[in-house]
């Protein structure tokens, strides 16, 4: 889901010297043939399309896909190659601020032995289908506290951070969600969803998307569900577990990035920055989201197994930090 710590998690994987990172390629170059809420049973129908799309991802050179900062040294890049990559990404960003579409010409493409890391906020509803189309894959579904997600979306929209319309008013998305198995078994219709207050409607968006993905991947050892607050509470320990899951050895470079990105002194105010105090960021909603909205959101999330861990008082990472 958007606003769930995906950018930080993506850069954690990018910090590994053996990965080739692409940031939201399916947002820049949409997978138009596949519905946003796809059925895993249709995997055979889309298998060739998915493989062709996957093969195209390393060659994508758009600034937003290939030049997400910071740029890390890589085992497959020489010092001059890394410098060219940094200069190329910088030039592309300057051109973007001038309204020009200037690809990152020096971004590395397919590399022997490198692991492609693909960060997405677009394809959560395709998760089950994609896992059936791409066999040699490891996946991480990151879940953020529903109140944190709702607060982040509402505050971002209030500050006009997004180019799209209001998420709570996206009738097209809610119409698709109303047609999912997860909505149908609850008797949720489009009409009922659109009658709800915005925070509660967003809570259902969080629940239905995350539940669909988690249920379709249940029992698949290639898939791991990660809770954002869990990562915030123990960045190094949880990242080690993620790397083990994905077959990546531990990297000192990643450990350095985790230290830098979680340092209070390094915190930045930019909305999309990966340099923030993670625990403060994770629990900021407690002082920002109105009490009535918190109550509505938690009631919705409690109806799903995905939301249940947030009610477990025995989990340290589900409790806000002291002070």
Q: Helix and strand succession? A: HEHHHHEHEHHHHHEHHHHHH
Q: In percent, how helical is the residue content?
A: 40-55%
Question: What is the CA–CA distance across the termini?
Answer: 29 Å
CATH topology of the domain at 6-19 and 115-318: the name is Rossmann fold
Average residue-wise pLDDT: 91
Strand content: 5-15%
Radius of gyration: 20 Å
Helical segment tally? 17
Shape: globular
Main β-sheet description: 2 strands, parallel
Strand order, largest beta sheet: 1-2
Q: Which architecture of the domain at 6-19 and 115-318 does the CATH hierarchy give at level 2?
A: 3-Layer(aba) Sandwich
Instruction: Give the low-confidence spans.
Output: none
CATH class of the domain at 6-19 and 115-318: Alpha Beta
Topology, number of strands: 4
Topology:
Blueprint: H1 6-14, E1 19-23, H2 25-28, H3 43-56, H4 63-66, H5 79-97, E2 115-119, H6 127-133, E3 139-143, H7 146-158, H8 171-178, H9 181-184, H10 190-194, H11 198-217, E4 223-227, H12 228-233, H13 235-246, H14 252-262, H15 278-283, H16 285-288, H17 291-301
Parallel strand pairs: 1-2, 3-4
Helix pairs in contact: 1-14, 3-6, 6-11, 7-11, 11-17
């Amino acid at each position: 889901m958007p606003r769930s710590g995906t950018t930080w998690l993506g850069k954690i994987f990018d910090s590994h010297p053996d990965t080739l990172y692409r940031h939201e390629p399916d947002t820049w170059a949409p997978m138009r043939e596949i519905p946003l809420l796809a059925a895993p049973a249709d995997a055979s129908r889309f298998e060739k399309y998915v493989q062709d799309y996957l093969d195209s991802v390393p060659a994508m050179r758009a600034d937003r896909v290939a030049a997400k900062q910071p740029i890390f040294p890589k085992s497959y890049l020489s010092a001059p190659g890394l410098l060219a990559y940094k200069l190329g990404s910088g030039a592309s960003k300057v051109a973007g601020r001038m309204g020009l579409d200037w690809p990152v010409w020096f971004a590395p493409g397919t590399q022997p032995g490198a692991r492609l890391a693909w960060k997405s906020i677009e394809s959560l509803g395709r998760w089950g289908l994609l896992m059936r189309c791409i066999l040699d894959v490891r996946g991480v579904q990151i879940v953020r506290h529903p109140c944190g997600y709702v607060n982040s979306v509402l505050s971002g929209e209030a500050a006009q951070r997004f180019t799209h319309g209001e998420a709570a008013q996206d009738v097209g998305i809610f119409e698709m969600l109303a047609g999912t198995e997860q909505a149908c078994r609850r008797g949720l219709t489009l009409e009922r969803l659109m009658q709800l207050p915005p925070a509660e409607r967003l809570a259902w968006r969080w629940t239905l998307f995350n539940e669909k993905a988690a249920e379709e991947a249940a029992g698949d050892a290639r898939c791991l569900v990660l809770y954002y607050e869990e990562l915030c509470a123990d960045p190094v320990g949880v990242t080690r577990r993620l790397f083990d899951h994905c077959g990546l050895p531990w990297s000192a470079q990643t450990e350095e990035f985790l230290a830098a990105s979680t340092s209070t002194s390094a915190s930045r105010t930019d909305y999309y920055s990966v340099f923030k105090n993670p625990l403060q960021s994770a629990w900021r909603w407690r002082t920002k989201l109105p009490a009535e909205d918190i109550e509505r959101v938690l009631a919705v999330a409690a109806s799903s197994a995905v939301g249940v861990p947030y009610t477990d008082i025995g989990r340290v990472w589900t409790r806000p930090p002291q002070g």
